[in-house]
Amino acid sequence: MKVLGIMGSPRIGGNSDILLDQALAGAKSAGAEVEKIILNQKKISGCQDCKKCNETGLCALKDDMGGIRQKILEADAVIHSVPVYYWSMTAQMKAYLDRWTAFFDADWRWHKAFYPQMKGKGIGLITVCGDPNVHTADPIVHSFKSTADFTKLRWLGTVMASAMGKGEIAKNETAKQEAFELGRQAATS
Ligand SMILES: Cc1cc2nc3c(=O)[nH]c(=O)nc-3n(C[C@H](O)[C@H](O)[C@H](O)COP(=O)(O)O)c2cc1C
């Protein structure tokens, strides 16, 4: 069992990072092998909609997303963690998500090369926003959950938290516990 964490904030040691670490600790506690990828340390260009991937399953862009896609394929579950930037996800996370396009064929179904590994894969989400109302992050949840529903991935759920200053979420025991549980479930369900 492998659980992959995808960190979408540029702040290492920030709120999204802390909660993702909690989720990965939860997965590890349930016996999973875990790995975290910090998107801000990777070079990921935006999807060009060139359609070259539709036939081959290979993306024409040669950057770090190729290696990340391989890790997604090998994982049993992928947990994303991202702050709200302007009522949406960060540019790092959006570039990453758009590049999932290379997993699909021309009809937006799993490319036959990837279907066996993507079928039933778990996908989860952690959001952090500065606004005290955690539902400020609803557009991000909509984006990830719709992607999961559309592609029949196994939706693991969402942890939505509020914090503004770097690392402030460390004081929020409820959010940390929820994130730990999300990770534990990712490794056991
Ligand atoms: C460019 C930028 C845009 C932001 N936009 C929003 C926003 O629209 N709504 C909100 O509630 N918080 C917003 N925030 C606050 C962050 O979501 C908040 O500080 C969060 O805790 C950052 O998480 P991190 O520590 O994981 O980076 C914004 C922060 C930045 C830097």
Concise structural overview:
The chain is of the alpha/beta class.
Q: Say what the CATH topology is.
A: Rossmann fold
Number of helices: 7
Bound molecules: flavin mononucleotide
- Which outline best applies? globular
Task: Spell out the key features of this protein.
38% helix; 189 residues; alpha/beta; binds flavin mononucleotide; 19% strand; five-stranded parallel β-sheet; Rossmann fold
Can you describe this structure?
With 189 residues, this protein is an alpha/beta fold. The protein has one domain (2-188): 3-Layer(aba) Sandwich (Rossmann fold), CATH 3.40.50. The protein has seven helices and five strands; from the N terminus they run βαβααβααβαβα. Strand 4, helix 6 and strand 5 (154-162) form a beta-alpha-beta unit. The longest helix has 16 residues, at 173-188. The N and C termini lie close together (11 Å). The model has no long low-confidence stretch (mean pLDDT 97).
Topology:
Layout: E1 2-7, H1 15-29, E2 33-38, H2 52-56, H3 65-74, E3 77-83, H4 91-98, H5 115-118, E4 122-129, H6 138-151, E5 154-162, H7 173-188
Parallel strand pairs: 1-2, 1-3, 3-4, 4-5
Helix pairs in contact: 1-7
Bound molecules: flavin mononucleotide.
Flavin mononucleotide binds next to helix 1 and strand 4.
